[in-house]
Fold this protein.
Amino acid sequence: MNNLNCSALLLLAFACAPSLPAAQPGEWRTYHNEKFGYELQYPAGWNVIEARPRPDGTSHWAGNVLSPGVFQKVTFEEPEGKLWPGEFIVLVREHVEGQTLDEWADTNFTDVYDESLVIGVQDTILAGRAARQFSVFGFDHTGIVVAFVRDRKIYEISYTGSTPNDPDLAEHGSIYEYMKQSFQLVPSIDESGFDLGGPCDDSEDSSLSNFDAKIRDAVQRGDQRQMIDLHKQYVRAMCSNHYRWYGLAEAYLGADRSGMAIQVLHELHRRGAEIKPSTFRDQKNLATLIEMPEFQRSELGRELHGLRMVAAQRKESYRAQLEALDVFARPPQRYVAEGACPFECCSYGEWEVLETTLLYDAPFGTVVVGSAVKGHKVRGVTGDVHLRPAPVAVVHDRPPLVLGEIIFVLDYLGEGFCRYWRNGEIAEEELWIDDVCLRPSRDCWAEHIQDPGDRQEPQWWILIETDEGVRGWANRSEHFGNKDACG
């Protein structure tokens, strides 16, 4: 991943800008289906019932058999003993070419008069894919169906949303939500992935002998095929390293093979990488590629467009939540981190003056009390970071922070840690914040609510003492050297 952490944000602009535990059983089991490429968690003790293929000439209503057009159905069922046992169903069915999920739902969920039973629709994400969630009228209950399209198949999960018949609905609801969040795609036996020319190794020895020298030699000779082969070898040595895949994609771009570069990015997407501009800050060619019409028209481009639409709706929801916060649920509009030194290895002490700088009587002061002269030595005594707390949405559980809450990021503490304001208290946490998480996960779990242009840059005011003993404040940190204790 290439998300911005607090240190990166502060260095650029001084802006730091799961599971559901409730009611879950003591143990969980993993259901893994290699044929259709998915897995999920289910409660220990629940029954797992897989439907059988339908014998020729048998009505699809006969027993627990697959209906026409359904490739697989598995039911996770709570043992008998409750008035309304819990039930969670996964279906993999045929997708009709050109049919939207809304059209599919309106024809699949109907009453005896062939009228649609769908009473609500919303965009969502399932297993990192843009999906549609349908509320379906079931006469004595409301069912929830979440579906997405993958490899000309519809993947569908369903469970009870509401019913007056289930006295344990709250417990079952948290179990269903946990199962839904745990649903993940995995490589299927029919999914070969990107051809690297050999299997992944990912052993402890992940190096490729003289890789850099060989690449330079291939560049000098203009041997693009050799460059691509070398990058494939490099990836095979550590397939879990996303940056090696980036290098392979750039090698294809250098050989004017943008289609192959897009395939590499598609494989990265399958492996969980977030394909978005912030991912490619150091790979400008790839950042350009993902904005091109060729990429936007690709299968990956269309998939990412759907994820961006879901993310945009989520951000609007958090903005509305932020607007509705009571004044007492917010931190002060201004926060001062006294004594802060806001970057990795930042250190006060003897500094070198790189540019002559005026010194003021106080932070944001207007009275000049002296100056630090270029070429002289001064002492950085201490400093304060003045900032406006930045609202951040928690889009995936990361204890102690939970999905759905808003925190306010304050100042950077070093090594990726920030101070943040939460429910009237100030705490510390390692924060990785991005403008958008296409697929919220443990790797991308916090989003800025404000757009970059609306976020105010913190100001670092430094108390400087000159060699003549004059003390004053300056906010031009770039005018001083020797601030970095790490060299």
The CA atoms of residues 1 and 243 lie 9 Å apart. Residues 1-5, 7-25, 57-62 have pLDDT under 50 and may be disordered. DSSP finds ten helices and 25 strands in the chain.
